Every structure is written in C-alpha cells, then in structure tokens.
Task: structure prediction
Amino acid sequence: MTAANPLDAYPQSVRDEVARVRRVVADLHAELPRYELVVWTAGNVSQRVRNADVPDGSADLFVIKPSGVSYDDLTPESMVVCTLDGELLDGDRSPSSDTAAHAYTYQHMPHVGGVVHTHSTYATAWAARGEEIPCVLTMMADEFGGPVPVGPFAIIGDDSIGRGIVETLSGSRSPAVLMKSHGPFTIGADARAAVKAAVMCEEVARTVHISRQLGEPAPIEQAHIDSLYDRYQNVYGK
Amino acid sequence: MTAANPLDAYPQSVRDEVARVRRVVADLHAELPRYELVVWTAGNVSQRVRNADVPDGSADLFVIKPSGVSYDDLTPESMVVCTLDGELLDGDRSPSSDTAAHAYTYQHMPHVGGVVHTHSTYATAWAARGEEIPCVLTMMADEFGGPVPVGPFAIIGDDSIGRGIVETLSGSRSPAVLMKSHGPFTIGADARAAVKAAVMCEEVARTVHISRQLGEPAPIEQAHIDSLYDRYQNVYGK
Amino acid sequence: MTAANPLDAYPQSVRDEVARVRRVVADLHAELPRYELVVWTAGNVSQRVRNADVPDGSADLFVIKPSGVSYDDLTPESMVVCTLDGELLDGDRSPSSDTAAHAYTYQHMPHVGGVVHTHSTYATAWAARGEEIPCVLTMMADEFGGPVPVGPFAIIGDDSIGRGIVETLSGSRSPAVLMKSHGPFTIGADARAAVKAAVMCEEVARTVHISRQLGEPAPIEQAHIDSLYDRYQNVYGK
Amino acid sequence: MTAANPLDAYPQSVRDEVARVRRVVADLHAELPRYELVVWTAGNVSQRVRNADVPDGSADLFVIKPSGVSYDDLTPESMVVCTLDGELLDGDRSPSSDTAAHAYTYQHMPHVGGVVHTHSTYATAWAARGEEIPCVLTMMADEFGGPVPVGPFAIIGDDSIGRGIVETLSGSRSPAVLMKSHGPFTIGADARAAVKAAVMCEEVARTVHISRQLGEPAPIEQAHIDSLYDRYQNVYGK
Result:
C-alpha cells in the first residue's frame, strides 16, 4: 500500500494546475542564469495555484524550487508544492530556504500570483547600502512607477522577511523591493511577471548605478513619471 | 471571402521587398541580445521598404518588431509592416510601442533606411545625466565623427520623440542620439548599419565611461577627428 | 616490458577513487570559465584521494589540472596525480605550476578535500590592494561567516604560498583567502565545495565592490552574522 | 588562361605553410569575441610565414583577416596573404585596414611571428587616458614583466602606428602596447602567443582598473617582478 499523496485531497482542477505550473516554474528558473541574476544554486521562483473551492485563498498552494539544486538539474518533477503556511505538501526534496518569505507574501497579498528572489549584483549593491534606486529613467517610470524601495533588515528564521516585503510593497507601485543587506524580491500577477520584474530591477539598478558613477542623473518630474506609468500599465500590451 | 490584404494595393516589387525585409529585420533582432544591448522584450529594429512608384517617399513602408514579444519568438512572419504615419498595414500583432518614433524618422530623413532603439546600459547611463559622449577614441572618430549628442527629454504619446531624434541628428555626423533620461536611437542606410551604430554606440559609451572613472581621457584634435572620419566614411570598405 | 605505473603500489580502493576523481576534477574545471573566474589556461581545481591504509593521511594523493592546457582540452585522462609532497605520481604532463600550494594545504589541513585557485577579477582587485572584503551581505554571512581575509604576499618557488593559505584560513571561518597581489585560493570538503567557494568569493567581491563605489555599505551586527552562519552551516542542506 | 597566382612564385614550403596558417589565423579569430575583446568586425590577428629561401626575412609573408567581414563568416579561404610591405599577395578581399601596422611590425621585429590588434574595453580605457598599466599583480609580472606601456598617438594612413608599436615594444618586456587614444596591439612568437597576450592584457587592464577604483593597489618590488618574470619565461611550460 502506498502512502496517499496529500495532493489527492485537492480538487482535480488544482492537481491539473499544479502539474502545469511545475513546468512553468521549472522553465522560468532558466531565465535567472540567462540574465545573470544568480550564481550556483542561489535564487528562486514560485507561482501560486489558486483553489477555486476556497474563495478566500486560504487553501491556495504554490510551486517553488527545491533547496540547493543546481540550475542544470531543475525539472518540473523536482519542483516542490507548498501550502500558504510554507509547509511542504508534495515533492521529493526540501523547499527553498526562502519558502517562508514566498508563503507570507502569497498569504498577505492575494493579487500576487508569482514571487522571485535573487541576489542580482547591482540590486544587491543598492540593498547593501540600504538606498532606494531613484526613478531617473523612462523605462523605470514605465515598469516601477517611481523609485525601487528598500525593505528592512531581516534575517531568516521567522516571518520578518515576509513582513518586510509585504509592508514595503503594499505602499508602493514598485513590484520590486530591495531587502536591506540581502537582495531583491519581486512580485507579479504570475511567476513570469515576477521574473520580468527581477530582470528589469537589475537592469535599472545597473544603469542608474553606472550613470551616478560620473555625476548625478537628471530627475524626471513626478507628472511625467505618473503619465508614463499610467500609459504603460493601462495601454501597452493590452 | 477573405478580407483583402492592404499590401495587395502595393506594387509587386514592394511586396517582394517586404518579404525579404521581414527576414532581414527578424534576423537582425538577434544581434541585440547577442551584444547585450537589450533585456526581456526591450529594443527594436526597423527597415524602410521604398516604393519606387511614389518617388517622394510618402508611400514607403517599414518593417518593425511587434510589441512585447520575446526575442526567442521573433520570426519573419511575426514582424509587422507600417506606413510612414506609423499605422499598422500588415501583421498579426501590434507594432512596437516605439513605432511612432521610427515612422517620424523615416518621414523626415529620406536617406535613412534603418532605425534601431535600445536601452543599452552605458549609453543610457550617459542619457540619464543628459551628457554627450566626448570623442576621445580613434574608433569613435571613425564611426561617429565627433561626440554622440544628447536629444531632448520627450515622452511617448505624440511625435516629440521623433522630432527630438530628427532635430538632433540632422545637425550631427553621428548616427546615434542619446534621448535624455531614455536611451539611444540610431540610424543607418539600412537596418544592418543602424544595428552596427547601436553596437558601436554602446561600445564607445562603455569605454569612455570606464576611462573617465580614473581620470580624464586625452582629447583628440579636431583636425585628426576630421581626417579619421573622412577616411573611414570614404575609403574604408569601398 | 612496460615501466610499472607508480599508482600500482597503491591499494585498489585508491586506484578506483583516482579514476573517479579524475572525472570529477576534469568536469569541475568547466565551472571556472562558465562563471568567468578564469581566462586562457589560468586557474586550477584539485581534489584529495584518501588512502585508508595510512590513516594519518601522509599517503594521500590528489588529482590536479596539468600545466598550460586549454580549458577546451581538459579530459579525465589529462588530469595528473600527485603525492602530498607535490611530486607527480601519474600523468602525461607537468602538474599545474600552483601544485605546491595545493599540496601544502592538503598536508597541513587534513579536513580539506578540495582546493581551487583563480585570478577572478573582483577578488583579485581586493587582493591587489591587500584589503579584506567586509561582511556586509547576508549571503556572505551564510557562506563566509565574516570577512574574506587577506593572506601575505608570497611568490612561487618555495612553500610560502601554501603557508600563507594555511595560516590565514586556520584562523578564519572563511573558505577563501585573498593572497596579496595574487588572487583567491579556496578550500572545501571536496573539490565541488571549493569551486562553490570560489564562485561565491567572486560574487561577494563584486557585489561589495560595486556597493562601495557609491557609498558605504551598512555593517551587519556580529550577532546576526553568527546566527546566519550557524543556521546555514548546520541547518541548510542537511 | 587563368592569371597566375603570385603565390606560385614562392617555394612549395611557403605555399604549404600559407595553407596551414590560413586555418590557424581563421581559428584564432574566434578567440577574440569569445573573450569579449571585440565587437562587430573590429580586431584582427595575423601570423608570419617565413620564407627560408631568403634568410634575411625580407621575403616573408603574413596571413591576416580581410577588412569588414563578420566574425561569423571568417574561414581559412577568406583570410588574405600579404607581403611585408603590406601589399595584398593572395586573397579575394581587401586586407584589414590595420595591415600596414602589422606589416611594419614584422619588417622591423624579426623575432615576431604573430600580431593582434583589438579595441578591448579596459585596455582602450587606459589608452584613452594615455596611462600605462602599473605592474601590481603577480600574473602581470609573469606575463608582462612590468607595466604595459603606452605608445604615441598616431593615425592611420602612413607608418606612424607601426613605428609607434615597434619603438615602444623594443624597449620593453611587455608583449602589449596601448596605442594612445586607440587601443592595444600585442606581439608573440606566433599568432597564438599574440592572442594570449591580448587576452591577458585586457585581463590585467580590467583587474588593475577595478582595484584602483577603491584605492591604490600595493606596489610589487622590482626584485620580485624580475624573479616572477624570469621563472615564468624560462621555467614554466618548458
């Protein structure tokens, strides 16, 4: 007799979506080394699986990378499934050591469908100084609608990283937060959007850093930032 | 009955050239990530298709990248065709959100056959400070004939980006302009020449930036710049 | 009659392990250019082969890269086997010119099973100033448990490089030492762990360098460093 | 009747060696983009073909890259053969626009068997300031035996670039010269050695640049530089 898989207690629609999202999340991990956002086994991507049977979201799941596995060895099968408490529900390995921060974010930000964490170089360099990235590029106004904010110093072991992410991003247009002395976390409607935010976060962190090395970038008026953000979020790609 | 393709109203020679240029433009997009000038779906390349039946150029077309498509998914078929008003003539997707700037440039600079836009890191870093790149390298004298100039701050939505490009480049030897707080646009006799200008623009932006980090690069006398530019444009490659 | 292979004097278990480790070490060399830690033929990885017949470790061997061979041409067969005196025991080529430093480390640090040496750019830049890398990132607390220390200036030809490595690392949690004016050496339980340390050493050298270019990174309290290090070494991955 | 190939006037041994060297030089060009020393069609590698019939070297030839050809299209057949006057002897295309500088170097430095020219970023950044790279790394002592010197400002069109190379390198241990406002030229016993020197030149230019961004690298005593250089040139790899 085989032990029952705890996923079997979930509706078929959830089980089907878990299977699909395992592949999505496995594939998206390849974008992290491709854009040079991670080295070795660092970094992780997750995506929420909504459970329509429990509309308040408390029975949602998410799919995330296992801990300490090389990017060359990430397959849909090796991804793990967790509840929103951050407990492992299905998978052969331990979930990423950042799982609690992902879980807290899904629990407290119901519109978030994807979360990404990296130690990408330039974003982490701003985080190490605890300094927000000022909005001095039109592409930054488009994507972030203002500066990329800094979250508090928090260490692993309780929910302080998750709280820092949620509190900082709840008051910001930015889908990225630079956790102090640590690195960026990004959110999105799904994992792909959160990966895009991680890529763009490093891009603006790098470009603004390099610009400031030889002087001060020109500020962009708030009205222009608002107008660019509004157009990009509401017109572009719709 | 199938709706008529508006391209059918154009001469056969134009339709044949559109087919050829779709492939040229699709292939050239691969050079942008290869030279690390773009991330995600940013950046775009276009090329003019001349309509010999209307010698004043007003019935020319151009082929450009569709909006928001990943670099892995760019095929000749996915490229879109626009009129010089920037209106979509043929294609399954919306044209790039920078199409109006390309269109304005083709309308007002009849010798221009290709346009490229990127947010390449070092060029954009100069653009963020609104600072031209001084001509302190012999390869820069060859390719740009002087500094790479800065264009005005302009936001998307009317023809102000296009006007900024045309006004800045009309008074310059440089095939590249750094649009303030935004990034570089480059022009050329065809799309390949504009891509080369985008690659060289980032190359000189990076090298001069790095040189200035530890001191001031030595100026090159204007007579030497003129002589290098003249040789390169008139002798080299002929 | 063929000359006897000196390896034949070793127990079968050692000969089997040598064969396995040749492949491990050859494969791990590919990680060095992949993470841009080396150019041309620079850099080397080695791994200890324990000889259970002589429990004090004095008859252990190690497998290392041959001297001056291109990364494209490294095969298990081309790896060479040395004694802990740094003498060639088996192999068609001379061992790496850094062999004496590897040998000294294995001789004097019995728990070390792998050694890596590179001239990775940012780590070497700190080494050239003779300046330790301060521990200002949570990932650095995890992996290094404090600053990455600097070892003495030492030149090739006697055991001064090996002594510098051993003396510096014996008093440190860090698996990496920046040998002054030279570059990083890293150690680990096996060659893979030492390669990981080399990758992480360059990662933190780069990120802290870039952070400091625009100001001073915030310090992390010693108690937090201790707590992060303890969790990472004792919980994570177990 | 086909026009006689001017190569037919040369001994069979020279014609055989030309065929071999065409492949060597074509293959070595791939190392330039691989190590990110060049973009687009910039950069060139050449190798001397000695003519044993004329021992004073005046009838030697060299094989070099054609002008303006993409790195993807370089084949042994597309390489061109020149006399030491820099005149095209055999080939379907024009020789590189830097051919005169290569020719002058072969004419005046009989021991030189290979020449490489790039605009690699960090080396060119030092060249733009007209500043030599100080010898502050043990790998630099090994390979260059001292600083990498700066050559005079010189523009294309006469033999002033070639003279600058020869005059600067004749008084130096370094196989690399930074031509002011232009970029590095390197020499070697053959093209492979000159490519290695180009790779190492950029490596030390980058590492010393980065080190100096946050302070002053420690000097290395002249006696240590001499000892490292002597060992590396006379022992290593022999």
Chains D and A do not touch (no CB pair under 8 Å). The first strand of chain D starts at residue 44 and ends at 49.
